[in-house]
Every structure is written in C-alpha cells, then in structure tokens.
Amino acid sequence: MESPTKSESVCRDPRVVGEDDVDDDPPLLSFHALAALKEFLAEQTQPSTEPHLENGVSEDSEVALVAEDWRLSQFWYDRHTAETVADEVLTLCQKFDSPRVACIACPTLYTYLKKIGPNVSAQLLEYDKRFSQHGSEFTFYDYNEPEELPMELKHNFQIVVADPPYLSKECLEKVAHTISFLAQHSESYLLLLTGEVQAERAAELMGFHPCGFRPHHSSKLGNEFRLFTNYNPGTRLGGWEQ
C-alpha cells in the first residue's frame, strides 16, 4: 500500500551568514521567480480538489495505510488485489449468520474489508504495533509463537485469511498452526496468499489449491505470488487451477 504523502517544505540556505555578508538592500526577485511566487500564493487560496478523506479512506475507494517497513517484510497489496480478496471474503460471510473473519499478517486486506463491509466482524493479527490504531480488532501476533494468542480467539473464526511474512518452510508451517488455532472447524473457509514456491507445502499442510487469480503488490516484487484456498470458489477468483 502507498506510503503517506510527505508535505513539501521550503528551507532556508543552511550556510551561516556573518556580519560582513549582510546586505542592507532587500533581495530582488526575478520576473520568473515573482510569477512563480504569485502562482503559489494563488493556489493556497483555492479550495482543495483532493479526494475527501474519512478515517483514512477516500471517496475514490483508495485507502491510506502506514508506510511499508521492509525490515518487517511488508509489501501491501495493490488496490485490485485487496478489493478482489475483500469481495470474496464478504461473499463467504453471507453463508453465516454471525461471521467472524481473521486476517493474519494482511493489514491491506483488513483495511479494504472494513471499507467495503464496515459492519463485518474482523480481527487483524499483526506484528507491527502501528496497527493497534484499530483498537480491539487488533491482536499482536508473532509467527514464531503461532499459538500465543488470547484464548477467546481459539476456534472462533469461520473465515481465515493468511499472508505469511516470509517465503520459508518454517514460516508457513507456523502460520498453518495459527490458522488451525483460529479456524472454527474443519469446514472453515481458508485463504492463503504467498509465493508460488510454497504451492506443494501449502497443499501438504492444509489441502490448499491455487486459484487462477494472481495477487499483486503496490511494490513490484520479483517472486510470483498466488492465492490458495481450501475450498472450491467455483467461477470466483479465476476458479481452481487444474
């Protein structure tokens, strides 16, 4: 996801000016500089044309997230990916009277999910405590301790979406333990977003199958990513690949 826009600022010349360097005459602007200054001042008095933001969400369906932290292996989904997966989750929610959704290490999905379906009950499990801004719907999660979670979360979710932070066998295995901890029963709907290199392991661990839909990130990554499910989505998500 996109990093917050940094506001530009005008800085003074950092050089130290001594008394001998002081000019009593006021500095004169060139014709072009004066015109640019007038244009800048005029823009400041115009009403803003930026999309309206409410709780970090703009009217054109874009959402604002904190900046990616490469040290935490954070790579936000692009808008199309986030909306596609969020729509699938909301479709699955219709199968239950009181659905609960767990989002493991996928804050982009959580944010879009809450935008499209603000009333959906969703829990974000994430290592980055910047997302504690989501209050009671945030749970600190370290994949190295896959089941060190509040007991009220155990077997309490009909839909679980996971995006392991690293493309390693160890990481996927530990996240699989977390999925099992959270899923309500064997018929829970599970979605996994990870590298294509994990396809065989994902199938062995939890019976995941790759879908035709290919997730993408706002940052261009070298690894090919896939979306896996433990259920047949039919014609959605491009269907299961044969």
From TrEMBL:
Residues 9-18 have a biased composition (Basic and acidic residues). S-adenosyl-L-methionine-dependent protein-lysine N-methyltransferase that methylates elongation factor 1-alpha. It is an enzyme of class 2 (transferase). Residues 1-24 are annotated as: Disordered. This is Protein-lysine N-methyltransferase E5676_scaffold202G001880. Pfam families: N6-adenineMlase. The keyword Cytoplasm applies. It is found in: Cytoplasm. The keyword Magnesium does not apply. Keywords: Cytoplasm, Methyltransferase, Transferase. Its EC number is 2.1.1.-. GO terms for biological process: methylation. GO terms for molecular function: nucleic acid binding; protein-lysine N-methyltransferase activity. It comes from Cucumis melo var. makuwa (Oriental melon). GO terms for cellular component: cytoplasm. InterPro entries: DNA_methylase_N6_adenine_CS, Efm5/EEF1AKMT1, Mlase_EEF1AKMT1/ZCCHC4, SAM-dependent_MTases_sf. Belongs to the class I-like SAM-binding methyltransferase superfamily. EFM5 family.
